Amino acid sequence: MTELVVVDAHTPQAAALESAASLLRAGQLVAFATETVYGLGADATQAAAVAKIFAAKGRPQTNPLIAHVSSVQMARAWAGGWPAVADVLADAFWPGPLTMIVPRTDRFAAAVSAGLETVGLRVPEPAVARGLIAALGRPVAAPSANRSEHVSPTTAQHVVDDLQGQVAMVLDSGRTGVGIESTVVDVSGEVPVLLRRGPIGEARLREVVGALRVVDQRTDGTQRQASPGQSVRHYAPDVPCIRVDEAFEARDSDAVIAVGRSVPGAFVLSTPEVAARELYALLRRLEARRVARIVVVMPPHEARWAAVRDRLLRATVLPPLPGP
Ligand code: AMP
Ligand code: MG
Question: Sheet of 241-244: strands edge to edge?
Answer without folding.
Answer: 241-244, 293-297, 254-259, 267-269
